Amino acid sequence: MASAETIAILNRLVTIHRCSLASYMKFACPWSAETNGQILETLAAITDDHAQTADRIASFVLEQGGILATGDFPMEFPGYHDVSLSFLLDQLVTRQLADMDAIKTCVEDLQMTPMAKALAEEALGESKAHLELLEELKQPVG
Fold first, then answer.
1. Long-range Cβ pairs for the range 103-106 (8 Å, 24+)
2. pLDDT confidence bin for 86, thresholds 50/70/90
3. What pLDDT does 35 receive?
4. Which neighbouring-strand residues pair with 40?
5. What topology is assigned to 4-138 in CATH?
6. CB 80 within 8 A of CB 28
7. Are 127 and 100 in contact, with CB atoms under 8 Å apart?
8. Are 77 and 24 in contact (CB under 8 A)?
9. Domain residue spans in the chain?
Protein backbone atom coordinates (compact mmCIF):
# COMPACT_ATOMS: atom_id res chain seq x y z
CA MET A 1 0.00 0.00 0.00
CA ALA A 2 1.38 3.39 -1.00
CA SER A 3 1.64 6.28 1.43
CA ALA A 4 -0.85 9.15 1.37
CA GLU A 5 1.92 11.40 0.03
CA THR A 6 2.62 9.02 -2.87
CA ILE A 7 -1.09 8.82 -3.68
CA ALA A 8 -1.31 12.63 -3.68
CA ILE A 9 1.63 12.90 -6.08
CA LEU A 10 0.13 10.25 -8.38
CA ASN A 11 -3.21 12.05 -8.31
CA ARG A 12 -1.36 15.21 -9.34
CA LEU A 13 0.02 13.28 -12.33
CA VAL A 14 -3.47 12.07 -13.24
CA THR A 15 -4.75 15.65 -13.08
CA ILE A 16 -1.88 16.96 -15.22
CA HIS A 17 -2.90 14.52 -17.95
CA ARG A 18 -6.68 14.60 -17.65
CA CYS A 19 -6.80 18.39 -17.37
CA SER A 20 -4.17 19.33 -19.95
CA LEU A 21 -4.91 21.90 -22.63
CA ALA A 22 -4.62 19.15 -25.24
CA SER A 23 -7.22 17.10 -23.37
CA TYR A 24 -9.49 20.11 -23.07
CA MET A 25 -9.39 20.64 -26.83
CA LYS A 26 -11.40 17.45 -27.18
CA PHE A 27 -14.35 19.52 -25.91
CA ALA A 28 -13.53 22.79 -27.70
CA CYS A 29 -13.78 23.81 -31.33
CA PRO A 30 -10.56 25.44 -32.48
CA TRP A 31 -10.81 27.17 -35.83
CA SER A 32 -9.10 25.13 -38.51
CA ALA A 33 -8.36 25.48 -42.18
CA GLU A 34 -7.93 22.30 -44.19
CA THR A 35 -4.15 22.85 -44.11
CA ASN A 36 -4.16 22.26 -40.35
CA GLY A 37 -5.02 18.57 -40.59
CA GLN A 38 -1.63 17.52 -39.24
CA ILE A 39 -2.08 19.73 -36.17
CA LEU A 40 -5.50 18.20 -35.50
CA GLU A 41 -4.15 14.67 -35.93
CA THR A 42 -1.23 15.37 -33.59
CA LEU A 43 -3.56 16.95 -31.04
CA ALA A 44 -5.83 13.88 -31.16
CA ALA A 45 -2.84 11.56 -30.67
CA ILE A 46 -1.59 13.58 -27.69
CA THR A 47 -5.07 13.60 -26.19
CA ASP A 48 -5.28 9.81 -26.54
CA ASP A 49 -1.85 9.42 -24.95
CA HIS A 50 -2.88 11.66 -22.05
CA ALA A 51 -6.00 9.60 -21.44
CA GLN A 52 -4.08 6.31 -21.52
CA THR A 53 -1.39 7.64 -19.18
CA ALA A 54 -3.98 9.02 -16.77
CA ASP A 55 -5.79 5.66 -16.81
CA ARG A 56 -2.57 3.73 -16.08
CA ILE A 57 -1.67 5.97 -13.16
CA ALA A 58 -5.26 5.97 -11.86
CA SER A 59 -5.30 2.17 -11.95
CA PHE A 60 -2.07 2.07 -9.95
CA VAL A 61 -3.56 4.48 -7.37
CA LEU A 62 -6.58 2.22 -6.96
CA GLU A 63 -4.41 -0.94 -6.81
CA GLN A 64 -2.46 0.71 -4.00
CA GLY A 65 -5.65 1.29 -2.03
CA GLY A 66 -5.68 5.00 -2.78
CA ILE A 67 -8.63 7.20 -3.57
CA LEU A 68 -8.65 8.90 -6.94
CA ALA A 69 -8.86 12.68 -6.73
CA THR A 70 -8.66 14.43 -10.06
CA GLY A 71 -8.88 18.14 -10.61
CA ASP A 72 -10.74 20.34 -13.02
CA PHE A 73 -9.69 22.12 -16.16
CA PRO A 74 -8.23 25.57 -15.47
CA MET A 75 -10.72 28.42 -15.63
CA GLU A 76 -8.96 30.10 -18.57
CA PHE A 77 -9.42 27.14 -20.91
CA PRO A 78 -12.87 28.21 -22.18
CA GLY A 79 -11.08 31.23 -23.63
CA TYR A 80 -9.48 28.86 -26.14
CA HIS A 81 -12.77 28.07 -27.89
CA ASP A 82 -12.89 29.18 -31.50
CA VAL A 83 -9.26 30.35 -31.65
CA SER A 84 -7.04 29.57 -34.59
CA LEU A 85 -4.91 26.46 -34.44
CA SER A 86 -1.75 28.51 -35.05
CA PHE A 87 -2.51 30.55 -31.91
CA LEU A 88 -3.47 27.41 -30.05
CA LEU A 89 -0.23 25.69 -31.05
CA ASP A 90 1.78 28.36 -29.21
CA GLN A 91 -0.41 27.89 -26.14
CA LEU A 92 -0.05 24.11 -26.33
CA VAL A 93 3.75 24.40 -26.35
CA THR A 94 3.71 26.79 -23.39
CA ARG A 95 1.37 24.50 -21.43
CA GLN A 96 3.39 21.41 -22.38
CA LEU A 97 6.53 23.01 -20.95
CA ALA A 98 4.70 23.81 -17.71
CA ASP A 99 3.30 20.27 -17.53
CA MET A 100 6.80 18.85 -18.06
CA ASP A 101 8.11 20.91 -15.15
CA ALA A 102 5.28 19.65 -12.95
CA ILE A 103 5.94 16.05 -13.99
CA LYS A 104 9.68 16.46 -13.27
CA THR A 105 8.76 17.58 -9.76
CA CYS A 106 6.58 14.49 -9.37
CA VAL A 107 9.47 12.26 -10.48
CA GLU A 108 11.74 13.91 -7.91
CA ASP A 109 9.10 13.59 -5.18
CA LEU A 110 8.68 9.86 -5.89
CA GLN A 111 12.34 8.91 -5.38
CA MET A 112 11.50 6.56 -2.53
CA THR A 113 8.69 4.73 -4.37
CA PRO A 114 10.22 2.90 -7.36
CA MET A 115 7.00 1.68 -9.02
CA ALA A 116 5.33 5.08 -8.78
CA LYS A 117 8.53 6.80 -9.90
CA ALA A 118 8.67 4.54 -12.97
CA LEU A 119 5.14 5.64 -13.92
CA ALA A 120 6.14 9.28 -13.50
CA GLU A 121 9.30 8.81 -15.55
CA GLU A 122 7.25 7.19 -18.31
CA ALA A 123 4.89 10.19 -18.23
CA LEU A 124 7.88 12.53 -18.42
CA GLY A 125 9.31 10.74 -21.45
CA GLU A 126 5.94 10.90 -23.16
CA SER A 127 5.66 14.59 -22.30
CA LYS A 128 9.05 15.30 -23.90
CA ALA A 129 7.97 13.46 -27.06
CA HIS A 130 4.75 15.49 -27.19
CA LEU A 131 6.72 18.72 -26.87
CA GLU A 132 8.92 17.67 -29.79
CA LEU A 133 5.83 16.93 -31.90
CA LEU A 134 4.30 20.30 -31.10
CA GLU A 135 7.53 22.17 -31.79
CA GLU A 136 7.90 20.38 -35.14
CA LEU A 137 4.45 21.60 -36.10
CA LYS A 138 5.53 25.17 -35.41
CA GLN A 139 8.38 24.89 -37.92
CA PRO A 140 7.69 26.53 -41.26
CA VAL A 141 7.10 24.07 -44.09
CA GLY A 142 9.46 24.30 -47.00
1. 103/13, 103/16, 103/127, 106/9, 106/10, 106/12, 106/13, 106/16
2. confident
3. 58
4. none
5. Ferritin (1.20.1260)
6. yes
7. yes
8. yes
9. 4-138
